């Protein structure tokens, strides 16, 4: 008997329905078997068959073992198509059950399935069956042992055991006619690999679904026992028409452990996972030993993804537990070569559902140990626990990487390579070499996205390193880069040809996370993608992206960088004629905007999200601001003329990037460029005396497509010293609060190696926020000290009739440590240093100097006082070794260097601070106060704990740092505030001058001691324009005067208008939306306040008249970041 069977609606114009549960029972007559052949399989595809599926079940009960689960789609490509080897099924008995399930996914259905079935008597020439069983059994060739097998026989046995088990095949008899390579008669054993899981360290899902090539057996020698790596095996017995033999008999059984895993990815589970595992005393051992290329170091990462073992502690019969590791079931991960346990997860003590990923150099041993548990007088066959599931992956330590891609569509690949097991610490004594190649018409663009590698004391790379070689040879001439440390190089770099070598080496000592880099094969300058171009005066030259002649679209996966240069004394003018690149859908744009806005704590962020984009840099890409931010459409402008840009320097860089997906038809972009004469900017040599640079933009009514003007200045020194810059006047009106188009930018651009002063940076500045300051409005940068010997100033202004932009600065080489800072809190032009920051010499790049004496004098306006708040403090300790404070209030300020050199408590008093110390005292008529209240007017500190906040008696403070010849610390960083103290109705008001530093600290008066009663503290934090800031309340303790209905501390945001000079205007505090602070905050859980660009933060703290219920007050710190840095 035979017939056909199909899913509901199959063969009609409609797909099957959602929410189906269908059962079919195929029952053959006695002594018959059931044969199935699938003719169509078109279901909703899912890697785990989690949506729509068809199950073929052995027997007549739905709870019986599933022979195969189908969710393939023949119409959706090779990766989803049903493999031919799964289209036929033969039962072991007379019955098969089919279960068809569809989920409720709206609109996601397909045609369904169709099959042919047949009830047949067993055929000696068509023997075999499909089985899914834990019982095991025997298999023998047809006719054995009474007679020889027949010619032209084709038998297929498909054996499957539950998850977590493996199949052990043991031969009892074997005699198959011998032939060369067993090509005539043979028994072939092949494994089915169907592993699927999340890889240990990354977010992708791996899925193996293939049949191993298999091993052919013939002759009369009894084969060795065969143990499978997977839980499914296929035995194919095939004979030809020549001669026969007696045949074979074998026993197969389900076993736990003993398997060797050779695939580069894989999954290991406990027996019968995830239902339960056997309740018996058993030890299952596995070996993970993936095959690697000769000469490649084997490194494997492993992660326990699911863990649920019996937590019952088993005691031996004598009342003692003699087990070596755990008294319950456990899972052990071992480093085989080192013979050490890397992870030991006991059911009784390890309570998590998963474990941290591990990385092991060499083979990994996995041991699963269970004990038999008895509950009362009964014992159960299974433990009611899921067991475990782990995944492993071979981590590449070198190898060949081919970026040729698809030659028909001209699509190249983009891949990433990492240090082995990134981001886990890399192993010792590695030498990994990747040989990267692309097609002959391509070059390779590469970019480091992550870097953390051991570095040398001098910033060099004598221990661990990543090297990049241009070409296919390893030598000093081809080596283009050697890096270590934790600062990845900025931007993309390119090979000169189609080959590249990356080498990663580690020594036997310290290890860190390693590196990750992205490589893309792109067209090179020979094909019109990037290169060096010359701009000439009064001669427009064309610039456009390469076009694919086959599609008339621009190419995918391009990384083109053009470096356009003019003669000295000239600038470059560039204008966009056409620009139409692939832009993200509006819904995705909104998602990107929302995500970035949440990241910076804003309600807006001006970006244009594009798949493909062009960007124009005002000079070298790595060190210059943008003329045109990354965009994919022509910017909208008022006069509807094409955008025109003029550089502030004789070089511009144009960068074009396209992704790997859809490109738009057309030329992508087209631009023109030429050289023009420069009328602003220049280079100025700094000396020991102050010099000036000033600028005032012209006002104009011109209606042309030049909307902006840019000028650039370089300040440098020939003495290899840093520079200091002070602003005397500043006004840069801006139409936006983030300073994208109209701005003043100060950038540290010198080479670190050419700056030899102790205050110079000791490592490259890439990625450091101190490198660039951009601002606009009337908010001048604060007193700036460079980390190199070259500073670049850039002014970008709007040419209009209403306003003009201007600045005036003073600059010189960094002076000695003796200096005076005169403060006037009433200056309205936004450049006053009424509040600011002072540091010890060389901070933060180097320790202060030995055997030195440095004096800093702060002189505020008459009638003002000075308030000092320490953000960092680390000097050589005093003579007394004082125990660290245990109060939670002080836990935030532990030493940041070796505790053998610096004690965790600030020592006070000149008697204790005998070595290095900081003395702070008030001045009267420039002389130290020597009256009887000396102790109130002079404080001495050493050690490495933050001193308390201090307030002066008058408008003058002298800060003296004295050091000896021995230990040097990192120094100090102090925020100072000019304070106007007034009294109103018995309320003492402390009005702090606004502070504009990018980072700093603020506390209540007398912190961490009790604050004074009946006081009102007011302070204003004004971020540099175009920056967003994160304020962290580190500590807050307001005692009993803080309750549910009130808090003595509060803050409020207020916008700043950057177009007019109103930054210094007096605010109306009654109109603010004040937000109360928590009554208590500790350093373990700081409270955050976000300041969006174009806003300032007002802070008020008010104490009552009762000192008995006071706390310690508050301490906060803030840190600001350039919004344009995130935008780029």
UniProtKB/TrEMBL annotation:
<feature type="domain" description="CUB">
    <location>
        <begin position="397"/>
        <end position="522"/>
    </location>
</feature>
<dbReference type="Pfam" id="PF26080">
    <property type="entry name" value="CUB_animal"/>
</dbReference>
<feature type="domain" description="CUB">
    <location>
        <begin position="127"/>
        <end position="255"/>
    </location>
</feature>
<feature type="domain" description="CUB">
    <location>
        <begin position="529"/>
        <end position="676"/>
    </location>
</feature>
<feature type="domain" description="CUB">
    <location>
        <begin position="256"/>
        <end position="395"/>
    </location>
</feature>
<feature type="domain" description="CUB">
    <location>
        <begin position="817"/>
        <end position="979"/>
    </location>
</feature>
<keyword id="KW-1015">Disulfide bond</keyword>
<keyword id="KW-0677">Repeat</keyword>
<feature type="domain" description="CUB">
    <location>
        <begin position="1"/>
        <end position="120"/>
    </location>
</feature>
<dbReference type="Pfam" id="PF00431">
    <property type="entry name" value="CUB"/>
</dbReference>
<protein>
    <submittedName>
        <fullName>Cubilin</fullName>
    </submittedName>
</protein>
<dbReference type="InterPro" id="IPR035914">
    <property type="entry name" value="Sperma_CUB_dom_sf"/>
</dbReference>
<dbReference type="InterPro" id="IPR058698">
    <property type="entry name" value="CUB_metazoa"/>
</dbReference>
<dbReference type="InterPro" id="IPR000859">
    <property type="entry name" value="CUB_dom"/>
</dbReference>
<feature type="domain" description="CUB">
    <location>
        <begin position="680"/>
        <end position="814"/>
    </location>
</feature>
């Amino acid at each position: 008997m035979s017939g056909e069977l199909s899913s509901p609606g199959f063969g009609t114009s409609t797909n099957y329905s959602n929410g189906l549960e269908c059962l079919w029972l195929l029952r053959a007559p006695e002594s018959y078997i059931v044969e199935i052949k699938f003719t169509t399989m078109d279901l909703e595809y899912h890697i785990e068959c989690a949506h729509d599926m068809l199950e073929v079940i052995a027997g007549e009960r739905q709870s019986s073992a599933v022979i195969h689960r189908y969710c393939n789609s023949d119409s959706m490509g090779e990766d989803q198509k049903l493999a031919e080897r799964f289209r036929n099924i033969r039962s072991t008995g007379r019955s098969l059950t089919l279960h068809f399930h569809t989920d409720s996914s709206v609109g996601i259905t397909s045609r369904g399935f169709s099959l042919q079935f047949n009830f047949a008597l067993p055929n000696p020439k068509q023997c075999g069956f499909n089985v899914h069983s834990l019982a095991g059994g025997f298999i023998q060739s047809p006719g054995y042992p009474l007679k020889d097998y027949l010619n032209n026989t084709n038998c297929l046995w498909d054996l499957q055991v539950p998850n977590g088990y493996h199949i052990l095949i043991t031969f009892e008899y074997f005699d198959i006619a011998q032939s060369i390579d067993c090509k005539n008669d043979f028994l072939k054993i092949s494994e089915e690999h169907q592993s699927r899981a999340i890889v240990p360290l990354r977010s992708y899902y791996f899925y193996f679904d293939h049949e191993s090539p298999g091993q052919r057996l013939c002759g009369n020698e009894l084969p060795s026992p065969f143990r499978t790596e997977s839980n499914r095996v296929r035995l194919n017995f095939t004979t030809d028409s020549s001669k026969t033999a007696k045949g074979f008999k074998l026993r197969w059984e389900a076993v736990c452990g003993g398997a060797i895993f050779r695939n580069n990815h894989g999954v290991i589970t406990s027996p019968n996972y995830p239902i339960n595992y056997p309740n018996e005393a058993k030890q299952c051992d596995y070996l993970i030993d993936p095959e690697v290329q000769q000469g490649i170091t084997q490194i494997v990462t492993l992660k326990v993804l699911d863990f649920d073992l019996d937590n019952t502690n088993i005691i031996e019969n004598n009342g003692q537990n003699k087990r070596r590791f755990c008294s319950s079931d456990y899972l052990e991960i071992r480093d085989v070569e080192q013979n050490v346990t890397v992870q030991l997860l006991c059911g009784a003590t390890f309570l998590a559902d998963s474990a941290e990923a591990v990385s092991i150099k060499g083979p990994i041993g996995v041991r699963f140990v269970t004990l038999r548990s008895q509950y009362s007088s009964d014992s159960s066959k299974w433990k009611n626990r899921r067991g475990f599931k782990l995944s492993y992956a071979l981590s590449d330590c070198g190898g060949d990487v081919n970026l040729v891609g698809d030659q028909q569509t001209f699509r190249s690949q983009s891949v990433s390579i990492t240090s082995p097991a990134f981001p886990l610490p890399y192993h010792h004594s590695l030498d990994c070499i990747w040989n990267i190649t692309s097609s002959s018409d391509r070059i390779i663009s590469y970019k480091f996205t992550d870097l953390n590698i051991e570095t040398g004391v001098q910033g060099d790379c004598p221990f661990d390193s990543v090297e990049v070689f241009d070409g296919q040879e390893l030598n000093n001439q081809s080596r283009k880069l050697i890096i270590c440390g934790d600062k990845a190089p900025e931007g993309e770099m390119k090979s000169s040809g189609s080959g590249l070598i990356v080498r990663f080496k580690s020594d036997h000592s310290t290890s860190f996370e390693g590196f990750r880099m992205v490589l893309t094969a792109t067209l090179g300058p020979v094909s019109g993608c990037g290169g060096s171009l010359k701009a000439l005066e009064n001669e427009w030259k064309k610039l456009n992206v390469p076009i694919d002649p086959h599609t008339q679209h621009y190419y995918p996966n391009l990384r083109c960088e053009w470096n356009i240069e003019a003669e000295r004394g000239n600038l470059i003018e560039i204008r966009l004629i056409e620009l139409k690149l692939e832009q993200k859908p509006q819904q995705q744009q909104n998602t990107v905007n929302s995500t970035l806005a949440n990241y910076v704590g804003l309600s807006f962020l001006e970006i244009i999200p594009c798949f493909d984009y062009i960007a124009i840099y005002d000079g070298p890409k790595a060190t210059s601001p943008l003329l045109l931010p990354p965009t994919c459409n022509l910017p909208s402008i008022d006069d509807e003329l094409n955008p025109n840009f003029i550089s502030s320097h004789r070089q511009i860089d144009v960068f074009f990037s396209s992704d790997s997906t859809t490109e738009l038809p057309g030329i992508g972009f087209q631009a023109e460029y030429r050289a023009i004469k420069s009328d602003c900017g220049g280079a100025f040599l700094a000396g020991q005396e102050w010099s000036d640079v000033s600028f005032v933009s012209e006002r104009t009514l011109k209606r042309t497509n030049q909307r902006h003007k840019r000028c650039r200045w370089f300040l440098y020194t020939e003495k290899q010293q840093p520079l200091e810059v002070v602003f005397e006047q500043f006004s840069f009106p801006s139409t936006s609060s983030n300073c994208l188009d109209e701005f003043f930018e100060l950038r540290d651009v010198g080479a670190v190696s050419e700056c030899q002063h102790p205050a110079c940076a000791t490592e490259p500045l890439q990625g450091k926020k101190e490198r660039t300051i951009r601002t606009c409005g009337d908010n001048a940068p604060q007193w700036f000290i460079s980390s190199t010997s070259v500073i670049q100033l850039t002014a970008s202004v709007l040419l209009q009739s209403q306003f003009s932009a201007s600045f005036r600065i003073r600059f010189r080489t960094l002076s000695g440590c003796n200096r005076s800072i005169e403060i006037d809190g009433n200056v309205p032009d936004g450049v006053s240093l009424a509040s600011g920051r002072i540091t010890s010499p060389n901070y933060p790049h180097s320790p202060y100097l030995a055997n030195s004496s440095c004096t800093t004098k702060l002189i505020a306006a008459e009638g003002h006082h000075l308030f000092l708040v320490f953000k960092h403090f680390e000097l050589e300790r005093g003579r007394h070794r004082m125990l660290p404070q245990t109060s939670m209030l002080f836990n935030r300020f532990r030493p940041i260097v070796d505790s053998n050199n610096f004690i965790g408590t600030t020592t006070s008093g000149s008697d204790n601070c005998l070595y290095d110390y900081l003395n702070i005292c008030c001045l009267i008529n420039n002389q130290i106060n020597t009256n009887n209240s000396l102790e109130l007017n002079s404080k001495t500190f050493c050690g490495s704990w933050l001193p308390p906040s201090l307030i002066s008696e008058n408008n003058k403070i002298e800060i003296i740092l004295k050091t000896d010849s021995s230990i040097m610390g990192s120094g100090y960083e102090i925020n100072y505030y000019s304070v106007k103290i007034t009294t109103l109705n018995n309320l003492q008001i402390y009005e702090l001058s606004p502070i504009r530093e990018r980072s700093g600290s603020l506390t209540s008066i007398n912190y961490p001691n009790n604050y004074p009663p009946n006081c009102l503290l007011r302070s204003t934090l004004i971020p540099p324009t175009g920056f967003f800031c994160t304020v962290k309340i580190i500590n807050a303790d307001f005692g009993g005067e803080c309750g549910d209905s009130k808090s003595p501390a509060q803050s409020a945001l207020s916008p700043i208008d950057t177009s007019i000079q109103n930054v210094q205007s007096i605010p109306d505090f009654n109109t603010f939306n004040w937000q109360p602070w928590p009554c208590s905050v500790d350093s373990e859980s700081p409270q955050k306040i976000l300041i969006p660009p174009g806003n300032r933060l007002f802070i008020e703290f008010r104490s009552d008249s009762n000192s008995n219920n006071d706390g310690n007050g508050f301490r906060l710190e803030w840190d600001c970041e350039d919004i344009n840095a995130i935008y780029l």
